[in-house]
């Protein structure tokens, strides 16, 4: 049986996570937040004091990636994420851990160690996969490929609002600088750089709200899945 796959790629802060969850609920598909996997790996390497030693202790880092103890538990309030038995749902969404993830994702050997984990999410009836290289590297066979982007400034404003909603004190200039730096690192990495697939449907959400983007996505996905 062919598993139907929808991919949503794009830069940090473009709204991929929120819209991927909405699509998964709409189509009753499984959900893969690949960014969370890299955040979890980055956090684990930080806990092991290896984040700044990845170049000289790479085999040890790969071993940790291969045996990462993670759990995603659905609840009425969303998805709880556990690392080594500890609830890190809030921790992995901080800017600091986002930086960890971006550093980890730039290491080819660590990306390879995470591939099989991501492939395992592709189960019937279907999957919505959210990330940066879902269509170009992990699921090139996907029936529907979406690339969601937005200006760095609009993404920074959204991120500030999100973090302030979590009770964090943040400054937009710091967030904007982090976004620009992460975009550069993600787009210039040698393995699976951030870019749209050749056959991706590109949406710029800079001046659109979530409902408007969701409508564009479902119209496109319905057409693709019907083919």
UniProtKB/TrEMBL annotation:
Q: For binding ATP, which residues are annotated in this chain's numbering?
A: 10-18
Gene Ontology cellular-component terms for this entry are: cytosol
Q: Where in the cell is it found?
A: Cytoplasm
Q: Does the keyword Nucleotide-binding apply?
A: yes
The answer to whether the entry has keyword ATP-binding is: yes
User: What positions does the domain Cytidylate kinase occupy?
Assistant: 6-222
Per the UniProt record, which EC number(s) apply here?
A: 2.7.4.25
Q: What class of enzyme is it?
A: transferase
Supply the alphabetized keyword list. Answer: ATP-binding, Cytoplasm, Kinase, Nucleotide-binding, Transferase
The transmembrane segments are none
Q: Tell me which Gene3D superfamilies the record gives.
A: P-loop containing nucleotide triphosphate hydrolases
GO BP field: nucleobase-containing small molecule interconversion; pyrimidine nucleotide metabolic process
Reactions this protein catalyses:
dCMP + ATP = dCDP + ADP; CMP + ATP = CDP + ADP
One GO MF annotation is:
CMP kinase activity
Q: Which family does it belong to?
A: Belongs to the cytidylate kinase family. Type 1 subfamily.
Quote the NCBIfam families the UniProt record gives. cmk
PANTHER family hit by this protein: CYTIDYLATE KINASE (PTHR21299:SF2), CYTIDYLATE KINASE/PANTOATE-BETA-ALANINE LIGASE (PTHR21299)
Protein known as: Cytidylate kinase
Source taxonomy: Bacteria, Pseudomonadati, Pseudomonadota, Gammaproteobacteria, Moraxellales
Gene of origin? cmk
């Amino acid at each position: 049986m062919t598993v139907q796959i929808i991919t949503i790629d794009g830069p940090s802060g473009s709204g991929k996570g929120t819209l991927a969850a909405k699509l998964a609920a709409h189509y009753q598909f499984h959900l893969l937040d690949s960014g969370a996997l890299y955040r979890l790996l980055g956090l684990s390497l930080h806990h092991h004091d290896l984040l700044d030693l990845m170049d000289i202790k790479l085999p040890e880092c790969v071993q940790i990636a291969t045996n990462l103890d993670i759990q995603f538990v659905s609840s009425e309030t969303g998805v709880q994420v556990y690392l080594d038995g500890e609830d890190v749902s809030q921790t992995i969404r901080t800017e600091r851990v986002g930086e960890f993830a971006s550093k980890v994702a730039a290491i080819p050997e660590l990306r390879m160690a995470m591939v099989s984990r991501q492939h395992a999410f592709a189960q019937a009836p279907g999957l919505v996969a959210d990330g940066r290289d879902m269509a170009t590297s992990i699921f090139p066979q996907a029936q529907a490929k979406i690339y969601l982007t937005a200006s760095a400034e609009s993404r920074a404003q959204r991120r500030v609002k999100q973090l302030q909603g979590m009770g964090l004190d943040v400054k937009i200039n710091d967030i904007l600088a982090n976004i620009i730096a992460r975009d550069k690192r993600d787009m210039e990495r040698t393995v699976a750089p951030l870019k749209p697939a050749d056959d991706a449907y590109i949406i710029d959400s800079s001046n659109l709200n979530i409902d408007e983007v969701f409508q564009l996505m479902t119209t496109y996905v319905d057409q693709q899945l019907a083919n």
